[in-house]
Amino acid sequence: MAIELAERRSLTLAHARMWLRHVGFDDELDTIDGDREIIADARAVLADGTRRIASDVRGSLEFYRTQAPVDLDRERVVLTGAAVAIAQHSLLSSTCRSSNATSTPPQTSPSRPNLPA
Q1: Across-strand partners of 114?
Q2: Between vectors from CA 97 to CA 95 and to CA 101, what angle results, nearest 5°?
Q3: Are 23 and 43 in contact (CB under 8 A)?
Q4: DSSP code of 107?
Q5: Residue 20 · residue 9 · CB < 8 Å
Q6: 73 CB contacts (<8 Å, ≥6 apart)?
Q7: Alpha-carbon torsion (18, 105, 81, 3), positive or negative
Q8: Which of 54, 69, 83, 89 could pair with 95 in a Cys bridge, judged by C-beta atoms 3.0 to 4.6 Å apart?
């Protein structure tokens, strides 16, 4: 996501990462200090990246569900790597809820948060 924002706005990768953290999902766009265009692009990149992660998780779960000899219900998903930073924000939980999945808030552990399936 940082690469996408860096390319869109001609930023360094480090600067793009700072913008993504600064903008996040918690605040309304008009309350965030900074360049309005960068803020809007950062939020769009975060939202699109979150949708892609949620879609990948749903696709993986569906694949494994079809491969199992019995119907196994999944209660949680464990994300690792770069997805952890995104998972700590509420939008991923909202995205999962919108797909009719039962949702609980993610753990705040920076290494392995548990997320709803």
Answers
A1: 78
A2: 120
A3: yes
A4: P
A5: no
A6: none
A7: negative
A8: 54
In terms of Cα–Cα distance, which of 23, 26, 28, 34 is closest to 1? 23
List pLDDT tens digits, range 16-43: 999 999 999 889 999 999 999 999 999 9
Do 19 and 40 form a contact (C-beta atoms < 8 A)? Answer: no
Domain that holds residue 18: 2-116
Its pTM stands at: 0.65
Residues listed for the chain: 117
Q: What is the pLDDT of residues 46-100, one digit of tens each?
A: 999 988 888 888 888 888 888 877 766 767 777 777 666 666 654 444 444 444 3
**Token pair of 43, please?**
């939020």
Rounded to the nearest 5°, which phi and psi values hold at 68? -75, 140
Distance of CA 36 to the CA centre of its chain: 22
Q: How far apart are CA 26 and CA 58, in angstroms?
A: 24
114 vs 3, residue with greater confidence: 3
Q: Rounded to whole angstroms, how far apart are CA atoms 43 and 25?
A: 7
| Gap between the Cα atoms of 107 and 109, Å rounded | 6
